[in-house]
Sequence to fold (890 residues):
Amino acid sequence: MKTMEELHQQIAKTSYICGSCGSCRSVCPVYREIGWESSAPRRKIALAKEVFLKHKEKIATEQYAQRLQECTLCGKCAEICAAGINTRELWLDLREDLTARGMEHPNLKQMAVQLKTTHNISTFPNESRLDWAEDLDDVEVEVSKAGSEVAYFVGCVSSFYPMSVGISESIVSILDRANVNYTVLGSDEWCCGFPLIASGNSQQVTELAEHNVEKVRALGVKTLITGCASCYHTWTHEYPTILGEALGFEVLHATQYMARLIREKQLMPGNLEETVTYHDPCDLGRNSGIYDEPREILQAIEGLNFVEMPHRREMADCCGGGGNLAAVDKDLSQAIAVKRAREAVATGATILTSACQQCVQTLQMAARQEKLPLEVLDVTELLWRSLEE
Amino acid sequence: MEQALQKICGEKRATTDPFELAPYTKDVAYVPAILVNLLTNPLPKAVVQPISAEEISSVIKWARQANMPITVRGGGSTAYFNCIPMKSGLVIDTNRLQGFSEIELDPGSHQKMVWVKAGMTWKDLDDGLRQQGCAVCSSPSSAPSATIGGWVSMGGLGIGSVPYGSVHDQVMALRSVTATGEIVELSRPDKGPARNKGAEDLQFNDLMGTEGTRGIITEIKLLVRDVPEKEEHLLAVFNHETDTGAMMSWLGGKHFTALYNVHFSSPEFIMTLQKAGYAPEIPSGKYSLEIDLEGKRIDVDQAIAQITKQVELLSGTLLPEGVGAEEWKDRFKSLRLEQTLPSLLAAEITLPISQFATFYARLRQLGQKTDTLCVTYAHLVSPDTALVMVLYPSDELNLIRYIVDLSFTSNLYKLGNSLGGKPYVIGFWNTAYLKKIYTKEERDRRLQRKHAVDPHAMLNPGKGYNPPNIILNSTVFGFGMIMIGLFRPLVLKIQKGGKGQ
Fold:
């Protein structure tokens, strides 16, 4: 973990590289909604340069803080940056600094406090993490089962939010159908810490990382899977760095694992006569490099007509639900989601899939709000539907 | 004021908030505040983001009544202060003018064209067209940020200019708003009747490369092309600038149907990228030419065969397949240089291709003499012209160093000028070089047109015509640069880091 001095030096060094060319503007989902230059990544970097390189502390106003937190952390600005800046890392560093200055958005501050208490992002006690499994008639979800090969890390959203529990239900149903020897952590599962990293509270993550890794190691599993793109990113990119060592087990996103099951003929997808498109979650796609496996699953479903959106893979647009944006400005998050949902509708698809519980939830709300003729599902939900048919 | 403008553009598209206004005082170039404030008053009083020509018309009429100058801003991706107010006033930010029409097929010429709104970026337009099997003919090397209206208002040379010419040649008609707030549609004079006939009326050519000083472009009818059947990107390296220059001249002179773009990188450019971990496949110390071919399969294949022979003849080497494609993929990412050299100054010059090798040789001598690392890249922009960008390191955190380094730009222009080259764009900073760019007759004609269509100098005052300040008078400026330049060796010596290391 960086000290504050190292953090400031890093911000200063990175901001000096920016040539203010503005390539980042037209791809930034936030700039495209707000429209003012102050919301463009290049302007945020210019302000950071003033604060950290030229030591003009007066620049760090409330408006500056607000703009820095109006970001989905989608990383598309990094993808297109003409100077090759890892902007996503810069935004995270700047949020750490905001927290240190006490300029964090009150909703994010509240979330960090609550997470410390409940170990999840909801208001529910962590003991109710497995309530979703009670609705399953045919599948018994066993907690911390010794001798399991696979551990399923459910994630906060599809553990606690009714809109998203269909994802966890589908994943365990598929694992069960494929005869996978799996287990879950139940109340031993704590939030992965991604919302804390995204809100500039990364110092709180170490405790979560140590706890989660210890619990999974104790199970002796070969593989950990998760259906959440942000959990996946945190487990694969943050935990090894935080702990300073390899985890000792394989970490896969649920779509990677299921694509493997299909490839190895352990799972045979069913048939669905639907036109379906796929939204690349930023944390799974651009930020983790996983593009093919979710598509592989969709294309393995017989009868399914798969169509791509114009903005896809590395250049996929964000759903608006990332970076804790909804906690900072719900309307802005929703406006971004509506744009993405409309892009899906324009392909002729009637089902929009994704591989992230947050993306699915955000896009579902947008589709409902706009009364779009679009069903939004996780890839695993659609796969399970094909198996149920 | 804010209320009046919000009444025209809506609450969310007009602002006088200082936090929102501040970014409109800057473009790509860093210029020390001491110089900016000495010569200009860049902070606008208000910024508006209209979504239609009608709104722009109302804004202009309001500004005329308020006697407030207007500066138009697109992507803000140039370095000449074209879009920065000189006399405060009002900024019209065109970025909300988005979208393009269905592709039309001209029955006479069988050419395809679209009406595109001025605020779209070139990359967004190209991406949108490609979904329909078409593409832009050419684009600036800043295509992800430069707007359609912005590039038409500038020099208009870039990637694809060899076969398709300046973007000005691809504009078939324009919709714009005059300095009086009238909305007009203007056809290309040789393609249809121009709407306005009177000399005092805005003409089509008044809007080509004139930096928003005579009217505000809102929509452009632009030629587009079919997505080519085949693309190939070759990367050839040479040992000497003479061979590289000869290859560029040969490529320009051969008039290959398939030649789309030629990009030159100097050994210093490659070395600087490699220090940041890029372009590892290109051998160090070489001059590189990325040769981009597009078109019918047979044309591309024939061009490859001839180019391969010519590269061998000039003792060059074609790098393995894929290297050129990688370079092409990163064609909009030349600023990666800043990872190694984070505070660069630059001069952009159009140069006869026949003089390219001589220019480069003299540039190297100049760099050695002045202890300056010159990092150069260039595009072939016509069969006989290159657009050359010379960058050199400075340090914006060190005011004295930065100011003395600014004087080196005039050395570069002088060198280019001695070989028939010209500064590419005027904007504000290059008004000092107007006499090098235009003849007296051309300058008089330009000024006459400005007075005819914008007699009260409402639109983008201080740009493109007479130097707006005595300091930018060519004689005063030239003398000043010489004097500052005299101190440069001393400053670089004292502060070491003369090569930006």
